[in-house]
Amino acid sequence: MIKRKFMYAFILLSLSIVLVVNYYSSLESLWMLILIPAVTTVILCPTWKAAITVGFSSFILMVITEFVFHRVQPSFRDAVHLMITGAVEWIIFMTASFFQIRTAKMIAELGNLALTDPLTKIYNRRYLDWNLEKSSLFPNKEQSMTLILFDIDYFKAINDTFGHNAGDMVLKKVCRVVKEIIRESDIFVRTGGEEFLIFLQDCSLEQGIKLAERIRKTVEETDFVYKDKRIYVTISVGVSKYSKEKDLKEFTEKADQALYQAKETGRNKVVVI
């Protein structure tokens, strides 16, 4: 946040200096200095919408300053020089913007890859550990929060009987089923091989239990077919409610105990602790 505030201040200061210098100077090439605040803006907001807006705004600002507010009206020759300077500035700016936007996109994609499970395309354990360590998983801990922890019953038997490709199909389809049920604000994480976790922010325990039961029932009723062979898939679910007196690690351990009970007492059920 401090870094962004500094960059905003730098943009305003450098833009002010560029306007003052070019208002009192008759040297058109000094308008190249406007690249400093323009490129800094794109670094701060690396999108093509921002780049095009800043590029056109810089050109219009240059024209207005020279032809409307300048103390000495430029000659035709000066106007030509100004247009050439503007064109060169535009080319340099758009080139710099292209590389900055592409770099920012690549960094974002690498970040997503590091925090996303490549098979199911949901968050992975690294994402969970990173946020638990920072205690930033939920910015508002005053809200009610519920945790659902579930795993696929007898998943090893599915792999052994139908093969690992069938297992991968089951994992991906279970995730699609769950994603269609939960809200966009809910955080869905693959924590292990066949184990998954869902953080429900602003969700009471009663609502969480209903959602967990809906997920369990939907998975049980979903057709899982691999090479014309139907695979019967169920899940065991543990549910716990977050308490302000406990940290998020205790929160997850409580749900893990509930999941263990669900598996030990028959599987394909929801247990609440």
From TrEMBL:
Indicate whether Cytoplasm appears among the record's keywords.
Answer: no
Alphabetically list the UniProt keywords. Membrane, Transmembrane, Transmembrane helix
Gene Ontology terms: biological process: cell adhesion involved in single-species biofilm formation; negative regulation of bacterial-type flagellum-dependent cell motility
Q: Name one GO molecular function term.
A: diguanylate cyclase activity
Q: Which Pfam families does the entry mention?
A: GGDEF
Q: Where is the GGDEF domain?
A: 143-273
Can you tell me where the transmembrane regions are? 7-24, 54-73, 79-99
Q: Which InterPro entries match?
A: Diguanylate_Cyclase, GGDEF_dom, Nucleotide_cyclase, Rev_trsase/Diguanyl_cyclase
Indicate the secretion signal residues: none
GO CC, alphabetical: plasma membrane
Matching PANTHER family, A to Z? DIGUANYLATE CYCLASE DGCM-RELATED, REGULATORY COMPONENTS OF SENSORY TRANSDUCTION SYSTEM
Its protein name is Diguanylate cyclase (GGDEF) domain-containing protein
Native species of this protein? Bacillus smithii 7_3_47FAA
